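Deliverable D2.4 — example input (structure tokens):
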């Protein structure tokens, strides 16, 4: 396969999966939005899985458990705080056993405040609605 920019991929997809090849634009860019499953875009699923894997790599050395569902596993703020601590190499305050939504939100706010103090810009990969992603 030859891309518009002159790059050539092997006939077998050049090492890319079938979905990876479908998600690539004619120029070879990797984040082309494709509607394959109704209202969900494949690239959002790819980005979510990639980010989940990255989070787990950061949390592994500190023993903060495994994230399998970002929405559920980061919702109480504890793993999010652990992630920020691992990246910033400093301890943050937390409510160790949040009992209600207010305490969970306080933990999340602690992590977000620490990121803001380090001028970390947050970028989303899609619009999240209760129950699933919204395509744009």
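Example output (designed residues):
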């Amino acid at each position: 396969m030859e891309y518009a920019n002159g790059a050539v991929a092997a006939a077998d997809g050049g090492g890319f999966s079938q979905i990876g090849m479908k998600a690539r634009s004619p120029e070879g860019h990797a984040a082309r939005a494709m509607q394959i499953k109704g209202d969900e875009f494949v690239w959002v699923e790819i980005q979510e899985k990639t980010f989940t894997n990255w989070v787990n790599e950061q949390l592994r050395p500190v023993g903060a458990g495994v994230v399998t569902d970002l929405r559920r596993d980061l919702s109480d703020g504890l793993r999010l705080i652990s992630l920020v601590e691992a990246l910033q190499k400093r301890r943050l305050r937390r409510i160790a056993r949040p009992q209600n939504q207010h305490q969970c939100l306080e933990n999340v706010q602690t992590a977000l405040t620490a990121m803001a103090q380090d001028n970390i810009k947050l970028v989303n990969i899609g619009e999240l609605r209760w129950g699933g992603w919204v395509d744009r």
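Helices lie at 18-22, 42-59, 70-73, 78-88, 101-117.
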